[in-house]
Write the structure tokens for this entry.
Amino acid sequence: MSDQDDSPPQDEKNEEPQSPASGSENSGADTAEQQPEVNPFEQAGRNPLGGSGGTGGAGTAHAARRTFAPGRAERTYEIRGDGQVFEGNYFIGQFGPDSSPPVVQGSVPQEALKHLADVYCEASGYHRMKQLLRTDGLLVLCGESGSGRKATALALLSELADNQVTRLDPSHAVHEISEQMIEAGAGHLLELPPDDGRREPERRRGETHTEPRRPSRLSELHLDRFSELLRKSHAYGVVLVESGDLADRLLRGRYGMYCPPAPAEEVLHRHLRVLLKGEPDGALDSARALAVRTDVTEALGLDELRPREAARLADHLARRQKDELSDEQLLDDCATFVRAQARAWFAGADRPGTLPEALPTLSAAAFRIAVAVFNGSAYSLTAEAAELLAWELAVTLDPEQPVGRRLFGTHAEIRPMVARSVLEDGEIDLGDTRVPMRAIRFQGEGLATAVLREVWHGYHNVRGPMARWLRILCDDPRPEVWVRASIAAGVLCSWDWIYGFGELVRPMAALDNPVPQMAAATALAEAARDAKVQPAVKSLVKEWAKSDDDALLATAVLAHGYVLPAGSVGASLDALVSVVRRQDDDVDVLGTASFSVMRLLASAEPETVTGRLSEWLKDGRRRLANLVLISMIGTLTMRTTYLWGLTEVPELEPYDAQPLLIALLATRPHLTPELAALLRHTLATARAGETALDELGSMLRRASRNEEALRLVCGFLPLLAQQRRDRDRLRSLLEDLVRDRDRPLNKAAASRMWDAVGEGADR
């Protein structure tokens, strides 16, 4: 090929775009402040969120990969109540689908205690608990709901009181228990509701004052009095307290002990042994094998079952062994476990409906929702987001009541228990590097979706504060915040498009701020995962792409970088071209469109993009050529971490910190000749060549510090140096980089690059 063949077209030489500020309205305005000309190529590769990445872009790939993705296809089932009811290992009774589990009042039936003896699995520390009961007559058992606290309490009391066990009325506080309520020689069980140990005393007849009476807070003094009453009657008592502030305080006293859940596998085995008694040999082993089958564990959606859930699963497995359930029905029943947990968390969470009494339960509800949105992210971000949501819920419940924050409330080591979650070590991607973080995650993949679905569909009045909360988070420049919030917003939109669009997407898209615009685009793309919602998203994005509103136009252009709204990479590129053709070389639109083109290059179909870029150059229209030139310049410095999508491309993940071009050379080697041709054209075009050469120099500097990147670059440079002028340009660049007095290029790396450029003459 001759030098002439490789030169740019005549009409491209020495052309400079007209400045957007050089219109006729500015001519002759001698005294007016002159606006600087904006060169679109100098801004090539910019992230719409700011700079070459900015605080709004760094680490967005990491944030998107770790987020929950409940918008994908999922099974939705109604809870069936047709079965046995257990509290931990303790059998309560039967109840139908239209009724609630019965509450046992007074003496616990002997048959229930007998059944408990057959299935109970001792919790760790059982003998220590029994010794404390014998010494003090009173024990406070703390633990999570469903952890088997009640079963352990009944087993202890049954053993020490010769099967004479009474359940005390939970509407009475500990300090209200009188000597007449104590049964000599018997065991007494009192389960405190999860209200932080506070009780609002009933008013006596004749009280006329309007000041609220101060609730009583459970203390060691109350427990000492209760212990004395029990010991006088040679009786025993166990108080059950759910994990939280009160439990944390009582565990430091003389009566408190933590009741860890018994191993779920052992609880399951004991219940199956009883339920399958009389069945053919092998039924027990078959049921246990079924419990660990992949489809069953995936349907459950929980990492570890609690004893109550293990007992419930045993009932389903036994019924399957008896052919009372089909495989499909078994999976349907297993899928209700996470929904049952979510329903239990939010049922009446605003009781009693006034602040500050309802604030503890509102805070717990807000924390659970925040964990659903930030599942796997930093605990500090999750906790702060939960406080913001708690404030929104509180002012919605009582707009006139001032709301503050407890400074030393629930400890960080205890708070995750409220949301069935755990703290663990993790890392946050900052683009150039990763830093340690303390992460929080649900103990089950199915909980995030179940929580959001329960709140969004079950409690309409919560939608308003949730929408306001998500919009606030989507305006946060930190990617670990706005990415999570925008994906959650997209999932909610897919569940109710009309409401979600009006309350979430449209308000964010209309803001003159790139971060909420990007969040709105992300939400639209996430909503488009749903095949039934995708046509509505596609129509909306098409309408916004023709809008005179710059904010809506930018949101539409950004949305097409995700593929999902248009349905395919080709359709997304067509939409971007349509926008660019209608614009008069608008720098902002070109920059935003090029960002979406690069995002599509980082998708699973880069071949479609490179092919289309070549076609646009052959088209001959300046606007399309500019889009190609800006996009190619961007690939030289735009790091792959900024170009995450909502469809997984796992092969790119190891190259997050590398420029997109390096990542493509490493993962898509068959595209190397086409990428070289596009970049060679960019370097040879007068209006873009200088900027492209500067950015190429930046890429070469970065590659010199990484052996794999250096190897890839040395294999790529010969394709850029096929003509003499190309080789001269590249060698001049290398000489300048080596002679740079402030940041000289490593000479060994430069020598390898120099030799690679020389290889281009032999091709």
Notes: The two ends are 10 Å apart (CA to CA). The first helix runs from residue 3 to 6.
